[in-house]
Specification:
9% strand; six-stranded mixed sheet; alpha+beta
């Protein structure tokens, strides 16, 4: 991961946008972020952390502390960072939640937190996420480390620099897992554990199946009575081999039973076959006697029916003769009916002609032709009669339209006469409204000035209280600092006064004095009161320094408060808040009045424009109505002339009738009656000819038939179905009679041995039933014996196969279990270290080895780090411990026992070693940028020189290291610098261009 550019706006101590160009330090590799205490050096790292994670290392209370206190309400707050991860360049922009002026209604509103992530694609920034949560999720995948891990390996912030060195095993494991991508080993462990559980479940399942199969076989043995000669209640053998051998003996017994049952079944089959044959012979003989008696009865019955069959035969012959006359009979009957219908129709047509006014004795055909010609003329007159009604209606419609148009023209003329007076009134009101609205801009400017003065007056009143509090705190700090300085002077005086007593306390008889060298000490000095130790003096000096710093800070706060109060008071012009508020209220009232007048003027202009539009529309409509009235008059004259012409034509055609339609209808009725009479007379003549011809044909055919009359022939007729039934009955009787005679003849010829009584049949049936029952029992016994033996044989074969599976599953489960236990850190793993921890322990060994190269130089060979794989107590993670070997004592000691400076050196070496190892791993992230925030002040000059030399060596690997410190010696050793300065007005600025090279 490499940082390129950081922009801070309204963030921390920075009010205006400040820029840090990290790419400018690529050639140097090491740069210093310097500045006075409190100027905002660490805020640069806060900005980096906030941009990437939305949090900062120093604050735990959320983002509200991030906005610069120097920012005005209208100033924005934003952090933007450009960086590269795995050859992809990103730009993230974040803003915390803060208050800003509301866009409407006055007052303030809350600007919600926002975030945006962009990717540089072909020289163009392309958006990838646009909400804080979404940006966090995407950056989590891109960066590969969380905020806490980032602060341990990349951003070594204040108070968190040594966390990786002093962290417990679990926390160190979490960080290393993310950096080296070893979570897959945890998955390996879980997969093996699942395989172990699956193997154990499979082993249990196959073992249970084997035991179930053997138990089922033993149950079958007990049910079939195949067990060895065990007494009732005697326990079955427990040993599996003994149980299996006993089952084999039972199988042999079952197979012997199968052989015995097969022999018994063969004997039963033979006995049953003999009984069945004897019984079948008796049944056959008895059946022949019954068949002969039945044949005699059947022949007698058929002979008795012979007279009836002869009558049916005669009836069939007459029906067949009558069938040849069916068509002439039906034709004659139809001709008679048609002639009667024609006579009735002719009589009805003659009556209708008389009713229509016709002359029965006249020439009807001539009358029909005359009526047809008249109907053609009157139908044309009927069309003119319809046109006459429509023409009269059109005349009435045109008269109504001329009247309506005249009324509309009168109304429009009256409205147009009222418009000039109304428009003059609107112009007068508009002039007055425009005059009042012309003051809107001036009143609005006055209101803006009054609001600014009011806000400044209120802020000045608030700041006056803050100034008093700040000056009071400053006075208290001055008093405390003075007392602390006086305390240091008092202790120094006591220390000097007590030096003689301290020297005397150290004198030993016979040994030389450290001052005069004499071995005699006649009058040694006495201590005056409690001695002043170095610790007492150091504690007092620390208290003095703290008090001095507090005094300086209080002075700065008081100065800043006075400056802010003076600036705001100057803006308010010294006006009281109440008076300023009253001025705002008056200006607001004036503005409302002017705005209302402007709104009224706009409404009047709209009304005047609307009135002009209505006037133009009315004039247009009047011209259209005048044109419409002219066209209506012309159309009325033309339509009235057409109506008069049609009236004359229709009157002539109507004659003495009410209308042409009535005359047409009456003539049509008479014409239709004449036509019907002519048609009926023609039809009657045709039907009479057809009837006479049918009668003659029928009489000729009857004379040649056996029938005396037509009625006699009709009575002999039968339907086709009746003929078929009668013919079938005669044929069936003839065939049955022949068959009965032949059957009786055959039975009479075979009369030997037919005398079988019912007692013989019953005895034979009983014997057959007994043989069948014995055979069925033998078959069932053989089937049961075969089934039992087969089931037992199959169960024993399945049992053997199941126990073979048990052995195989047990062997596989043992292998998987041992591997899973070893990988999970269980026995036989004596170190209790799981696979992931083992891999991370190897990585930690490399990290410690890389760290020791620099720690040995920085500590002048005194300290080296040692990876510890000792087992942790209470089940905690083992194998990721770190100890420190002190060359002066030759003993290992925990990192927590190091002093502040020693902890800093060890943490720095470990962080650099961690970065080198992670960079060397293809699966991890590349740490191209490293920041160290403070800690150098705890080093003596020689150790500081060693630490700086170590950091300077990092440039060879292409890494850029940023160091934050206020130590003056570092400014001389690091040429590339970023200077953070606090301006006299309060906000800080970042100076890079002038400070990159000193």
């Amino acid at each position: 991961m490499k940082l390129h550019r950081l922009e801070l706006t309204g963030f921390g101590p920075f009010r205006q946008t400040q820029v840090v160009d990290f790419d400018a330090f690529d050639d140097d590799g090491l740069f210093l972020i310097s500045g006075r205490t409190g100027a905002g050096k660490s805020s640069i790292l806060d900005g980096v952390s906030f941009a990437l994670y939305g949090t900062v290392p120093r604050y735990e209370g959320g983002e509200k502390r991030l906005r610069s206190d120097h920012s005005f309400l209208t100033d924005p707050t934003e952090v933007r960072l450009e960086f590269t991860v795995r050859q992809t360049r990103w730009r993230v922009t974040r803003a915390p939640e803060y208050d800003r002026p509301a866009k409407r209604g006055g007052g303030v509103t809350t600007e919600i937190a926002r975030a945006e992530l962009e990717e540089l694609v072909d020289g163009t920034w392309v958006g990838r996420a646009a909400k804080p949560r979404t940006v966090g999720e995407v950056l989590g995948d891109v960066l590969g480390v969380n905020a806490q891990q980032f602060q341990q390996v990349i951003l070594l912030a204040q108070n968190k620099f040594s966390r990786f060195l002093l962290a417990p095993g679990e926390e160190r494991q979490t960080l290393l897992r993310t950096l080296f991508g070893t979570k897959r080993f945890e998955q390996y462990r879980d997969d093996l554990e699942q395989r172990r559980r699956d193997a154990q479940r499979e082993l249990s399942a196959v073992d249970a199946r084997a035991r179930t199969l053997l138990g089922e076989a033993e149950r079958l043995i007990d049910e079939g009575g195949l067990a060895d000669g065990r007494a009732d209640g005697e326990e079955r053998p427990v040993d599996l081999a003994d149980r299996r051998a006993a089952a084999d003996h039972s199988l042999q017994r079952a197979e012997y039973r199968v052989e015995q049952a097969a022999t018994a079944q063969d004997r039963a089959d033979a006995a049953h076959a003999a009984a069945a044959a004897a019984h079948a012979e008796l049944v056959h003989r008895a059946q022949r006697g019954r068949d002969r008696a039945a044949a005699r009865a059947r022949l007698t019955e058929l002979q008795e029916r012979e007279p009836l069959i002869a009558a049916d035969r005669a009836r069939l012959e007459r029906a067949r003769a009558a069938a040849t006359l069916r068509t002439p009979l039906e034709t004659a009957e139809r001709a008679e009916r048609a002639h009667a219908d024609a006579v009735a129709a002719a009589a009805s047509a003659a009556a209708a002609w008389r009713d229509a006014g016709g002359d029965p004795g006249g020439d009807v055909r001539a009358t029909l032709d005359a009526l047809t010609g008249e109907l053609a003329r009157w139908e044309a007159a009927l069309a003119h009669e319809a046109d006459l009604g429509r023409a009269a209606a059109a005349v009435r419609d045109l008269e109504r339209e001329r009247s309506a148009v005249g009324e509309l023209l009168t109304a429009i003329d009256q409205q147009l006469a009222l418009i000039p007076d109304e428009r003059a009134a609107i112009d007068e009101q508009l002039a007055a409204a425009d005059h009042a609205a012309s003051r809107v801009a001036d009143v609005r400017a006055t209101l803006a000035g009054a609001v600014d003065v009011r806000d400044a007056a209120r802020e000045a009143a608030t700041l006056a209280t803050e100034v008093a509090a700040a000056e009071s705190a400053y006075a208290d700090a001055v008093a405390v600092a003075g007392a602390a300085g006086a305390r240091v002077g008092e202790l120094l005086r006591q220390r000097l006064a007590g030096y003689a007593g301290e020297l005397a306390a150290g004198l030993v008889a016979g040994e030389p004095c450290a001052v005069c060298g004499s071995t005699e000490h006649p009058r040694p000095a006495h201590r005056a009161g409690d001695p002043v130790t170095d610790d007492d003096l150091a504690e007092a000096e620390r208290a003095r320094d703290v008090a001095a710093a507090a005094e300086k800070q209080a002075a700065g706060v008081a100065h800043e408060a006075r400056q802010r109060h003076a600036t705001v008071r100057e803006r308010s012009g010294g006006i009281a808040p109440d008076a300023a508020a009253a001025a705002v209220a008056a200006a607001e009232a004036q503005l409302r009045a002017a705005e209302e007048a402007a709104a009224a003027a706009a409404a009047l202009r709209d009304r005047r424009a609307e009135l002009d539009e209505l006037t133009a529309a009315a004039e247009t409509e009047r011209a259209a109505l005048a044109e419409r009235a002219l066209r209506a008059g012309e159309q009325h004259a033309a339509v009235a002339a057409d109506a008069a012409r049609l009236e004359a034509m229709v009157a002539e055609a109507r004659g003495g009738y009410d209308s042409v339609a009535v005359r047409l209808a009456a003539t049509t009725v008479q014409r239709d009656a004449a036509r019907a009479l002519v048609d009926a007379d023609a039809a009657l003549a045709e039907r009479t000819r057809s009837r006479d011809a049918a009668r003659a044909d029928l009489q000729a055919l009857l004379a040649a038939s056996p029938f005396t009359s037509a009625d006699d022939a009709v009575a002999a007729l039968l339907e086709e179905s009746a003929l078929a039934t009668l013919d079938a009955t005669i044929a069936e009787h003839r065939a049955a009679l022949t068959a009965a005679k032949q059957r009786l003849l055959d039975l009479e010829l075979d009369t030997a041995g037919d005398d079988v009584d019912e007692a013989q049949l019953a005895a034979s049936a009983t014997a057959l039933a007994d043989a069948d029952a014995a055979r069925s029992a033998a078959i069932a016994a053989h089937r049961d014996a075969v089934g039992t033996a087969a089931r037992l044989r199959g169960l024993l074969a399945q049992t053997d196969a199941a126990y073979a599976d048990v052995a195989e599953a047990a062997e596989a489960a043992a292998i998987v279990t041992r591997l899973a236990d070893t990988v999970a850190g269980r026995a036989p793993n004596t170190m209790k270290m799981d696979l992931e921890t083992f891999v991370l322990a190897a990585e930690l060994e490399e990290i410690v080895a890389a760290a020791n190269i620099r720690l040995a130089e920085m500590s002048s060979g005194r300290y080296t780090l040692h990876h510890s794989d000792a087992r942790a107590a209470r089940g905690r993670a083992s194998g990721l411990g770190i100890d420190v070997l002190d060359a002066h004592t030759g003993r290992l000691r925990p990192p927590q026992s190091l002093s502040g400076g020693e902890t800093f050196l060890a943490s720095l070496a470990l962080a650099l070693g961690l970065g080198e190892v992670v960079t060397a791993r293809a699966g991890g992230i590349r740490l191209d940028t490293l920041f160290v925030d403070e800690g150098f002040g705890s080093l003596d000059p020689e150790t500081l020189e060693l630490a700086m030399r170590t950091l300077d060596e990092l440039r060879a690997g292409g890494r850029t290291v940023g160091v934050i410190s206020h130590v003056e010696a570092m400014k001389e050793q690091v040429p590339a610098q970023v200077l953070v300065e606090a301006t006299p007005e309060g906000p800080s600025v970042i100076r890079q261009d002038a400070a990159v090279r000193r």
